[in-house]
Structure formats: structure tokens, C-alpha cells
Design goal:
Number of helices: 1
Mean pLDDT: 96
Largest sheet: 8 strands, antiparallel
Shape: globular
Number of strands: 10
Length: about 150
Amino acid sequence: MPESTSAGTKISIGTTAVAHATDTYTEIGEVTNLGEFGRTYQEITHEPLASRDVRKHKGTRNDGSLVIQLARDINDAGQEAVEAALDSDFDYNFKIELNDKPEEDGTNTLIYIKAKVMAFTDNIGGPNQVVGGTITLGIKTGSKVIVPAAPGA
């Protein structure tokens, strides 16, 4: 299957353990949007007067931030774990599981990242809105590991 929808995607928080694949994860409930994330490079330019050209180079790299939208649930274990991680200076393991297995008995793509919980804010909103929240994860550069979806045995 060359493409898939976001429906059925899950994100979970682990611990500060070194090994992400064997960590214990707790799903973060009521997530409505995971946003986008990925590596970007700082653009460095050089503008020699004689040639009038702008020469571009790559500078530092940054794996960015992941901004997660959700409905607030004070009894959700995953949201509680994120709240607890908010005041920590350590990187936590996160696991994103897509809903893209190629066969019924196959496995979904897994994306592992290490990140600091940089923010967890509330959005009360208006009368026709669910009480929401936003989590911002500062992704540790070089920590993303992708385990591709696979067919069943």
C-alpha cells in the first residue's frame, strides 16, 4: 500500500531509558493531530560582490519540534506522564505507530524519537469546543529511528 491515512495513528510516551525499542510505553489519549516534524538545515549564504551570486551552504541541522493537539483528559495515563515529564530536563522516548500495515497480520510503521517535553498548555476555547491542549516536544537531533511496516509471516 503506497499511502495511508493518519486515522488510527497512536503516540506513546516512554521513559528516559537509553534503549527505545525495549522501553515501556503509555499511549497518550485523545490526540487529534500530530502535526509535522523532520530535519531542517540552517541556510548559510555567501554573496561575493564580483559575481553577484548568492551561494548557499548547509549549516547546523535541527530535527525540530512536534506539536501535538489533543482533547484534555485529566484521567488519561499518557497525558499524566507527559505532565510529569514537563518539569524534567531529560529526553524521553516517544513511539509513533502509524496505521499502515500492508497485510492483516503485518506490522505497522514505528517511529521512535527522543524528546524533551517543552510545553503542555490548555485551551478552554468557546462554548462549542472541546477543552483541548497542546504538547510541544523538542526532538533530540539524530534520535529518530523508523521501523518500516512489514507483511505478516
